[in-house]
Amino acid sequence: MAERTLQVTGRLGLHARAAANLVRVANRFRSTLTIHRLDGSDAEADAKSILEILTLAASRGTKLRIVAHGVDEQEALDAVVGLFSRNFDEVEREDLEQSVPTTQQLRCKGLGVSDGVVLGRVLRFQEGAHEVYRAQIGDADLERERRRFRAAVRLSRRQLEAIKHRAEKELGRGHAYIFDAHLLFLEDAKLTRDVEDYIVKQRSNAEWAAKVVGDRLLSIYTQINDEYLRERGSDIEDVIQRLLANLTGEGRHYPNLSEDAVVVSRDLLPSTIAELDLSHVRAIATDTGGWTSHMAIIARGLGLTAVVGLRDFYQRTRTGDQIIVDARRGEVILHPTPATIAEYDFSRSEAPPIAANVTGVIESGPVTTRDGVSVALRANVELPTEFQAVREFGACGVGLFRSEFLLSRPGLMISEDEQYEAYKALAEAAGSDGAVVRLFDVGGEIGSELGERERNPALGLRAVRFNLRNQQVMRTQVRAILRAGAVGKLSLVIPMIADVADVRAAQKVIAEELENLTTSAIPCAKVPIGAMIEVPAAVLTAEKIAGEVDFFELGTNDLVQYTLAVDRGNDKVSDWFRTLHPAVLYGINRTLQAARAAVIPVIVCGEMASTPAYAVLLTGMGAVDLSMTPAMIPRVRSTLAQIETNQAREVALKCLESATADEVEEIVRSEFRTRWPDLFPPGKLPKASEPTA
Ligand code: PEP
Ligand code: MG
Predict the structure, then answer these.
(1) Of residues 426 and 216, more confidently modeled
(2) Which of 54, 372, 495, 514 is positioned for an S-S bond with 441, CB 3.0–4.6 A?
(3) CA-to-CA distance for 204 and 138, rounded, in angstroms?
(4) Residue 64, beta-bridge partner list
């Protein structure tokens, strides 16, 4: 045995390229070569495995012992020690690394959809079109799975060699080195042997095995303390993704998150946000999305700083990059300079929640306007983690529970008992004011994955249509709601109905389930049934529908989307998403009138109700029941307490006479400024096509 103690002296530590050189030298010898950290951590690595070397996280100054064992141990040790003393033959490439342009500060404009400014580290997250599923493999097929995996490795190698070759030609040798490291990752026994072992021991399909082993490796990286080395996690992530793509074209998994993660993604499914470890996510930044996309709504609900609609930002980032997300200015800054960071003074402000601007004790119950009109302020809730916010922000119960967020993944249904527990907890959180549970609004943006992908999901088998077509799913949910209705105050609302026929079809199912439960002597209660009015057809037949239900819920998000034919999640058409379009206002006004005539309540639960200026306009049209992101309640409360609804009505009538969204916005700006100058200084009023928080 031969051994030597030495210290890492290079500025970047034992990073990917240095490790790749070390593996190459070690592989020239037959002896085993092991590297031990000398800080009492017991960490050791095989010098022939790049992944093991990198998990040592040996930054500059780390003391190591190299142990060689075998026929040529002395030569092997001398060669490795020589490489360390020559700083891994790295000198001029470190300079090159310094000048890689991607580390220059880069500002990108998007749309801030919540409050807060956050300094953190990028965690790239690519929403896979498909998930990686585990399949149980029979003994006879295990060899086939291993062969499939080896074939995917071979294909990945060919691809990487081609990329490396092109990078060398186009960018020079210095820029292509990283693909050498990728190639070494790909062939590292720590990866390939572990995946094959997993396939055999767990009788697993190759995709699942690659995912589990890859995740384990990634999680080691995200916990590494050294900034430069931690960033190398994104290289491993790339390799794993390539492998998975070559196996099936599927999948992406969440690495363990570090404390200050900023999730950067092209697109983020609401269910993905719900699955993230929120104690570690500080902000999100996405290429797509708009103010009323569910992702934005959830981010606001959770008090997460978020900027959406950043177009091609994702491709400019790497996991581990430093980033500022400024939701107030609607911008992100990648690789901020020390001067930029100093401008923000992060030592003082720690991403204040939206309600932080509201001072004093949080009031609860309805708010009374100056002219004595009482307006109920309820909470929109998506996730059980938000239940406590209902009381915290003084809500009059829950005006809308978007129950589909109980389905942690699209297409993954949960049992009747699990749902029952969730609705019971919801009713408890809501208290005597009660909670409205919406039947699953799956399909559309949420995606159902129970069926085929649709060409036009927003106009497809969404919400009530999905429920009526998947009656088992609907019946299970209805039973859970009716049972929970026996122990707490609950109502049920049917989403996206177009006319009385939809209402009747849904009511029939609900009545049958009530009957079934009653005959089986299972405790349950008849609950009020409402209709979501969010489709123009429902607005136009509102008088008819009002005669058949106990209450209306006005979903202004979809009402804008469907009235104006503007996809609410598509940033390319966000300029056309005009909440204050006169056609939208006619729809709202007409719905409120129809409900008044039938003497049924209307809860306005779209994002419009969360925006103080819009809430005033809604009361001007006669709305007295608003449901919103809980954190916005104090702000809307303080605004409504200082206005007179008869004045708001005068403004609303003028708006209803306008021809364009620009005209309405101009009326709102000038009238609000004159009537309530303290409440609505210029910055607090809607700019063209942009909501104000
Ligand atoms: C709406 O459409 O306004 C609404 C409240 O429901 P969702 O945003 O979930 O579609
Ligand atoms: Mg809706």
Answers:
(1) 426
(2) 495
(3) 9
(4) 6, 37
